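Figure caption, in words: inputs first, then the predicted bound structure.
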Amino acid sequence: MALGQLRRVGSHGCRSLTAALGSQRCVSRYGTKTRDRLSVAARRAGAPPASGIATPADGEAPGHQTGASAGAPAYPHVPVMLREVLDAFQPVAMHVYLDCTLGAGGHATEMVTAHPEMRTLLGIDLDPTAHAVAEPRIRAAAADRSPELTLQLLRGNYRDLKRLLGTVSSPPPRPNGILMDLGVSSMQVDTAERGFSFMRDGPLDMRMDPTAALSAEELLNTWSEAELGRIIRDYGEEKLWRVVARRLVQAREVEPIRTTQQLVKAVGQTQLVSKGGRGGRSGGKGIHPATRTFQALRIAVNDELQKLEKALPDAIEALAPGGRLAVISFHSLEDRLVKHAFLRAAGRPTPEEESLVHGPDKFAYLDALEQRKVADLVTRKPLLPGEMETEANARARSAKLRVLQKLL
Ligand SMILES: C[S@@+](CC[C@H](N)C(=O)[O-])C[C@H]1O[C@@H](n2cnc3c(N)ncnc32)[C@H](O)[C@@H]1O
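Bound structure (S-adenosylmethionine present):
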């Protein structure tokens, strides 16, 4: 099924997808009701079957589907919160657009279609598979453009976005829109050899950048119990972090933990029933006991939070006057960083700074806030996916979108 078709049926939710796709059931980003429909559509398009991918409601990390395109691996594709992202960028004259998390180019392709004025599209991803899948799809979407769309794909980390933009031109381009759609892609989650999924047996790799030095296997088998405990507590938000860290160390004393299923076994039955997602949005459904440990390892292996924290102010600085930054996050640790970076850029106190607003130096502090203001918040509270999307796509359930606009 073509992306355009998916997009057209998207606003009608899963029932329309069901009707459009026939009697089979949908793939991973969709809930169980519809899961296999897209799966069959995907296989028709040449995609590998996407069996057994957990969703945030089941406790698996959020992932993203990839799109079918001539000459590239074909996957069904439904970018998360697509309508909301397009709406966020709609008022902006999008001459230069930067997608910091290109993935399969799902959002990027739709942005090309929605912004005929776009002249340059820059796409960053640290996973070479993403570029291979996204490039032909974006080129196809821009095929009839006159003048041609300049497409520049930058292999690298969005942490280095300032440097990467510097490689494009001098002075560096000032994007009118920047998107960060955080987390792993389904291309990554669905590939057992990459070790992201506890639903698939594979080597414990978990590197988004396949050339990066540290794999989950190395981390698990060499870090101390205290370090493991720290990441399971801080990145996995696992209440039973001490128990889990102890079990991992006991298991690796018997033999090194090398595969996802060895890890699942080592974690054992910790939380039999605990709330998935945030604030019960996923319905308080029980999550897999290894969920939080997998999340913790993935965040640690890819140093995700530090990179995001560095990238956010750089992205805001890079924006052209009046340009917008949209960030989709999938767990509270990411969202907190986004919220705080946005508050700082908007000249507002972060929750930690609130007390200063009422303190003895409040006027000096208010001046300092005014000084640092470079943007306005477009979304005061994060936007959440609509019911239709979350019904159709369990993985969208934990998504939050925040948008900011650089001052003119
Ligand atoms: C959720 S997917 C993006 C999906 C995309 N929006 C689409 O519609 O196809 C996230 C992508 O960001 C990439 N990524 C994650 N962290 C990154 C980082 N620090 N720098 C560059 N790319 C990163 C991942 O490799 C993955 O391909």
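Strands lie at 96-99, 120-125, 150-155, 177-181, 324-329, 375-377, 400-406.
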